[in-house]
């Protein structure tokens, strides 16, 4: 199809968009009574006749409207001379500020002729006649009130007039006045209307004007705009949209697009993201910053604006509540809000659940502020409390132990400040265990099945132990004549009442046909119920290997933590392993001392709520590295006091070792 550019009506052609007409006004029978335009403003006002004879026209309503507007008398100033609403006025408004991309097209004989539009106007009904009716009503009321007053009172009272001289207008005041809405309205009203003559669709003048929609000359010389190279033509079709960028709607002050965000420095990007999201895993933060971002730089920046809580990053309180600000709810200063929010964050480092009443009781803040703190980082659960909104991020904790350790030390400092400010009691410092969390869900995962099985084995452990002792007693009574050389056998004769044996239970499926971890059919005990010497050696070797490898990783462990790690080790072993023969607490402690560890008698406070196993502390005395001497000095310090300041430790290390350690070396020894 050949395309031609018609230029005869250039800067003269407008597109009028009419509203949906009522049934009494169709396209065929519309009569334009008058039309006028303000060319500078591109504003049009049309007056159209309404077909009052149409069966869909409500005559009584039309008479009522005419009566309200003009009253009972009719003269030249009447809006509706026929005492009937027989016409409707339409006023225009610009549909688009930039119409250079629009054109009117006419297709004829395989040719498409385009005429650029000069304006697109939307016509809407004007209801100025209602204003006129209101004005008439007010005039009638004023006339009625004026008739009641006496003519003697008609004379005006003498009033004092105050004369004021206006100051000369400054340039700034003049610019403000020129840009004001009132001034612009006045300027628009000053432009005179230009009256137009309307020609109908079938009028000869209209048909003559329509011929200008076709290109008058088909020669290429007259259509130079279309003689372009392909690249120039493509540029004409899709020009760089500079104006569109200026016409974009302004976003709210608290909204920043990702495109604008990436133009900022990395530290500002992280601060803005954390301030908006408040809680975010490190992996999500890296994905938002885009590929190619250095994770080390991100870690350096994130620690300036956020704290680590359960492996996830939570924005710092002083970022959300800057200095010299206050609470929108209670007017509390930012410093008090930061302390209260830090307390909530610290509670979530201790437990996944926080109770709102407890936070309000400690911080003494209003409920709205406490609710804001909790909504930043947790989700409310019915009859349970507030749960931290994100799961524990084990991947980040495993990959970045140095960051985790540094954040832990920061939290220790925050905890010390909170203890002084809020006078925290012991129940506030120890995490609570909620019974509601132990309820079994309807869908049980594999890990939950394992924990349920282990709990069931714990319940049956006492009964299994009694049955084992009974079997041993019966075997002893039947075989008293049998004697054995027991010089190489360590006999397990520990009263149950004095010291409970360790819980070495594993999965429930491993205990089918097992007594204390041993298959009854393949019982390795001798006739007296004791383990053979070879089996004892294998158990000792396995236990020693476990203790050695554990202390080389951890260096310092309580008996409670060591027993927990040993139970996890047993759970990973196959059924029938030699360590299932029954390892008591005494055997485990003796093996710890045999592997080069020492018990550190830490003087814990007498009012501590720790269990006896948590008070027994064992440490690796010699690891064979360069820090053995420093570690021994540190353990000696903690054998005299359970809480020591860092500068005291650093001075003691320098005195004992005869060398000044830098901060990194002290951190490594402490870690």
UniProtKB/TrEMBL annotation:
Residues 454-481 form a coiled coil. GO terms for cellular component: RNA polymerase III complex. GO terms for biological process: tRNA transcription by RNA polymerase III. Keywords: Coiled coil, DNA-directed RNA polymerase, Transcription. Residues 432-671 form the DNA-directed RNA polymerase III subunit RPC5 C-terminal domain. InterPro entries: RNA_pol_III_Rpc5, RPC5_C. Residues 134-143 have a biased composition (Basic and acidic residues). This is DNA-directed RNA polymerase III subunit RPC5. The lineage of its organism: Eukaryota, Metazoa, Chordata, Craniata, Vertebrata.
């Amino acid at each position: 199809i050949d395309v031609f550019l018609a230029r005869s009506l250039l800067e003269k052609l407008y597109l009028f968009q009419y509203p949906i007409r009522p049934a009494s006004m169709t396209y065929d029978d519309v009569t334009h009574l008058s039309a006028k335009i303000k060319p500078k403003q591109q504003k049009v006002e049309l007056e159209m006749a309404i077909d009052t004879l149409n069966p869909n026209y409500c005559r009584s309503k039309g008479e009522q409207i005419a009566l309200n507007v003009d009253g009972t008398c009719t003269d030249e100033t009447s809006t509706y001379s026929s005492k009937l609403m027989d016409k409707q006025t339409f006023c225009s408004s610009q549909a688009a500020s930039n119409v250079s991309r629009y054109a009117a097209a006419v297709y004829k004989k395989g040719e498409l002729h385009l005429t650029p539009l000069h304006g697109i106007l939307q016509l809407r009904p004007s209801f100025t006649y209602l204003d006129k009716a209101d004005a008439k009503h007010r005039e009638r009321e004023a006339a009625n009130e004026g008739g009641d007053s006496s003519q003697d009172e008609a004379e005006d009272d003498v009033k004092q007039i105050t004369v004021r001289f206006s100051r000369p207008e400054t340039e700034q005041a003049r610019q403000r006045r020129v840009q004001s809405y009132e001034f612009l309205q006045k300027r628009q009203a000053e432009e005179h209307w230009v009256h137009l003559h309307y020609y109908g669709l079938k009028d000869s003048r209209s048909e003559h004007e329509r011929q200008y929609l076709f290109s008058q000359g088909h020669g290429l010389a007259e259509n130079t705009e279309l003689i372009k190279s392909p690249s120039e033509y493509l540029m004409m079709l899709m020009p760089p949209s500079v104006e569109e960028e200026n016409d974009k709607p302004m976003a709210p002050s608290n909204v920043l697009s990702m495109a604008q965000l990436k133009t900022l420095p990395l530290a500002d990007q992280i601060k803005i993201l954390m301030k908006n999201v408040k809680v975010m895993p490190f992996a999500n933060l890296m994905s938002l910053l885009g590929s190619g971002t250095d994770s080390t730089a991100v870690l350096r920046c994130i620690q300036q604006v956020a704290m680590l809580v359960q492996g996830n990053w939570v924005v710092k309180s002083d970022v959300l509540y800057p200095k010299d600000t206050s609470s929108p709810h209670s007017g509390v200063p930012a410093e008090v809000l930061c302390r209260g929010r830090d307390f909530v964050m610290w509670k979530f480092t201790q437990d996944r659940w926080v109770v709102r009443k407890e936070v309000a009781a400690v911080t003494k803040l209003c409920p709205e502020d406490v609710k804001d703190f909790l909504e930043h980082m947790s989700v409310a659960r019915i009859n349970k409390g507030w749960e931290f909104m994100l799961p524990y991020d084990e991947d980040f904790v495993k990959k970045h132990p140095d960051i985790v350790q540094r954040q832990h030390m920061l939290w220790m400092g925050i905890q010390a400040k909170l203890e002084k400010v809020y006078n925290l009691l012991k129940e506030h410092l120890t995490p609570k265990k909620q019974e509601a969390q132990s309820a079994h869900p309807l869908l049980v995962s594999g890990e939950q099945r394992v924990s349920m099985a282990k709990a069931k084995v714990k319940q049956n452990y006492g009964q299994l132990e009694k049955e084992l002792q009974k079997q041993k007693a019966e075997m002893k009574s039947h075989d008293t004549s049998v004697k054995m050389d027991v010089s190489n056998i360590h006999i397990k004769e520990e009263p149950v009442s004095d010291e409970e044996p360790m819980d070495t239970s594993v999965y429930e499926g491993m205990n089918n046909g097992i007594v204390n971890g041993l298959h009854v059919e393949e019982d390795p005990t001798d006739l007296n119920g004791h383990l053979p010497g070879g089996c004892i050696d294998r158990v000792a070797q396995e236990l020693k290997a476990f203790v050695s490898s554990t202390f080389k990783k951890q260096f310092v462990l309580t008996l409670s933590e060591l027993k927990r790690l040993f139970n996890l080790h047993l759970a990973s072993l196959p059924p029938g392993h030699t360590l299932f023969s029954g390892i008591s607490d005494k055997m485990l402690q003796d093996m710890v001392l045999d592997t080069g560890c020492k018990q550190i008698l830490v003087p814990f406070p007498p009012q501590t709520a720790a269990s006896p196993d948590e008070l027994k502390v064992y440490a690796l005395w010699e690891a064979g590295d360069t820090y053995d001497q420093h570690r021994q000095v540190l353990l000696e310090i903690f054998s005299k006091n359970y809480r020591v300041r860092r500068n005291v430790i650093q001075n003691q290390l320098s005195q004992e070792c005869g060398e000044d350690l830098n901060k990194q070396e002290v951190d490594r020894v402490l870690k």
